[in-house]
Design a protein that fits this description.
The structure is a homodimer.
Chain A (H helix, E strand, L loop, with lengths): L2 H14 L7 E7 L3 H14 L2 E7 L1 H10 L9 H8 L3 E6 L12 H10 L1 H8 L4 E4 L3 H7 L3 H12 L3 H17 L2 E6 L14 E6 L6 E3 L14 E4 L2 E9 L3 E3 L2 E3 L2 E6 L2 E6 L4 H8 L8 E7 L11 H4 L5 E7 L18 E7 L4 E5 L2 E5 L2 E2 H4 L2
Parallel strand pairs in A: 1-2, 1-3, 3-4
Antiparallel strand pairs in A: 5-6, 5-17, 6-9, 7-8, 8-14, 9-12, 10-11, 12-13, 14-15, 15-16, 17-18, 18-19
Chain lengths: ~375, ~375
């Protein structure tokens, strides 16, 4: 076993999930995550937690879904009872084929999700954490060699989280106190004529909203490992945003997305590839045309895009805006934010020609923060 | 996938577990049983059952147990709730290393078993079935090539169970009506002098006991696939039994066991190898020196011993006696049979020089039954 797998397990159990003696833990193990499961089980044994291990196999799920007639029972009692009696759920991702469920009709997947909404809520009510074990399938999706990809994953996961949490607290403080965010990125190739503008200049309100310091720990309302982002729930967006990072939406690659906002709503859009997928997304429901999230990636252990949103949106020197559902953690008690059946992150690289302003003051310029550069 | 894996899944789901629409099923998947899990999930989807998949990994269990201090919580709520709300539990065995837990101290395993006795009872209260997917590790333990072992397993599993159940019903009828069983096997090498006698001549009472027609289906109180045995709970054994099939007891190979009974209790014993393991077994508790089971193997698809009791004790033309715990299904309502913390099967080949008598009438001779041969 790669010695970093044990370090990964220690971060997951101690920093992220804060497992304590007597905790009832559900360990969900993807097909390729066996080694991490062994390392996590060792840590859980040391801590005196109680473990039920689940087999989160894409191929088992595919076979079941394809064979089922689609009329799923609502929240089967055994599944619901398992999660309702769990303190923590640890998802160890890492498949052997990232396209393993490619031939499962989307409607069937959605029908199962709708039928088991109660079980999902019960899972989300625990101290859950999602992480990923590096597999060859994920390396392939990232366009990387296996050894190279393992280095990439551990660089992202094995951070000094306590120190990063301290850094991110500064940004959270600024966003919590602020009213308006403006994101500007000049178009480097802008020649005022040939091709569409790649320029971003978008403004949104964050008045009354609370930012989450997503430091990869349930103690910070943060449920991903790796994490490394500060996010909030913006509204009333105006202007245009260009997203230069390719995304996979509904299984299809979408590039060079441009969204134009008026009064918080997307009024115009374009994409350089698979624009119809973007159009379908924005047509899902009313909330799909409004923003649900503004996130600032702060994990500088992530140095490239790997077609995996768990990593991509956390990359240092990036900003993401999500259309669709807002997270409750960002909303004042009792207030309903943007609602939608979808939440899709779109990412832009802000390491160059960029600035982020809060109430007219520059907070980040070309990926560097005010407190780093002293501007 | 081997097409027989799908046939195996169909037998498991339809004949053995009798899965119906809406059943809440827990699928426990060993490390090497992935293909069978996929095939079973497909069947469960077709039937409209609801599935929670568990990862029954020996290596995960080993890591957890070794790291734990041994002071286990009693029946963790999430595990208990899962099984209490399940209709069926399907155990898909098939490890990648049959010795994967060899360095886990026995006391720790026993401590966990004691602490989670309630969860075990909840599992056993469902329509549970244990089966096994052929893996290279099991082939190795059986001393067989992988392809050869797969043929062996499917020959044992893919029987005409309905027809075998009909055959076994005849034996059950005889045992249910009978009072006394005598098993005799001549010593083929018996020369009245050199070496210990390998002769068996043992008599036991079965008066008032009920035989189980173990036809690999919960509909027959039978929870193993493959199965193929008729068993009951004998008492008051007298005489000597020799077991020529090697057994693994507490992880050690024990050969050529001889037990002598007086008044139902073992009064003398010997073994050709690891006799101390046998001595420890018999010393476990008072019940460990008395019989808990007499079983007649009837699965002629099993043509050799493979160091796996799930198969060995079902082999056609064999008889097994277990020291230790008796099964409730064989006992009259309210009557307590032999009690013990152990139940260890010892097997003898009765294909030659042998006969089984019930109340003085020969029922089986050299492996052939009365109704087959007309005696």
């Amino acid at each position: 076993m790669d010695p970093r797998t044990r370090e990964h397990a220690a971060v997951l159990v101690d920093w992220s999930a804060r497992i304590e003696p007597g905790d009832n833990v559900v360990l969900q193990v993807a097909e390729g995550a066996h080694d991490l499961a062994v390392a996590v089980a060792e840590k859980l044994g040391e801590r005196g937690a109680n473990v039920v291990s689940g087999y989160a196999s894409d191929e088992v799920t595919r076979a079941y879904l394809r064979a089922h007639d689609g009329d799923f029972d609502e929240d089967p009692a055994h599944e619901l009872a398992l999660y309702r009696n769990a303190d923590s759920v640890l998802f160890l991702g890492g498949g052997r084929n990232a396209a393993a469920t490619a031939d499962v009709p989307g409607e069937k997947r959605q029908a199962l999700a709708r039928a088991t909404e109660g079980a999902r809520e019960a899972r989300m009510a625990t101290d859950w954490v999602s992480t990923v074990h590096p597999t060859r399938a994920l390396a392939q999706r990232a366009g990387m060699a296996y050894e190279e990809y393992r280095d990439f994953v551990y660089e992202a996961v094995l951070r000094d989280w306590e120190s990063l949490a301290g850094e991110m607290a500064k940004l959270k403080e600024i966003l919590d106190a602020g009213s308006e965010v403006r994101i500007v990125k000049e178009d480097p190739d802008g020649d005022g004529g040939s091709g569409p503008s790649r320029r971003t200049d978008v403004t949104m309100s964050i008045e009354g909203r609370t930012a989450v310091n997503s430091a990869a720990s349930v103690a910070y309302d943060s449920h991903n490992l790796p994490s490394g982002e500060v996010f909030t729930a913006p509204y009333a967006a105006e202007g245009t945003a260009f997203f230069d990072v390719p995304m996979t939406i509904s299984g299809k690659r979408v590039r060079d997305v441009r969204l134009s906002f008026e009064g918080g709503e997307v009024v115009d859009f374009a994409a350089g590839q698979n624009e119809d997928v973007l159009a379908d997304l924005l047509d899902t429901d009313e909330g799909a045309r409004r923003l649900g999230e503004l996130g600032v990636g702060t994990n500088r252990g992530i140095d490239r895009f790997t077609d995996n949103v768990l990593f991509d949106e956390k990359m240092g020197d990036t900003i993401h805006l999500a259309v669709g559902r807002a997270y409750d953690a960002c909303l004042p008690e009792g207030e309903e934010g943007n609602r939608s059946a979808v939440h899709v992150d779109l990412i832009t690289d802000v390491s160059e020609n960029s600035r982020v302003e809060v109430d007219g003051e520059v907070v980040q310029r070309n990926g560097r923060f005010r407190w780093e550069e002293g501007f």
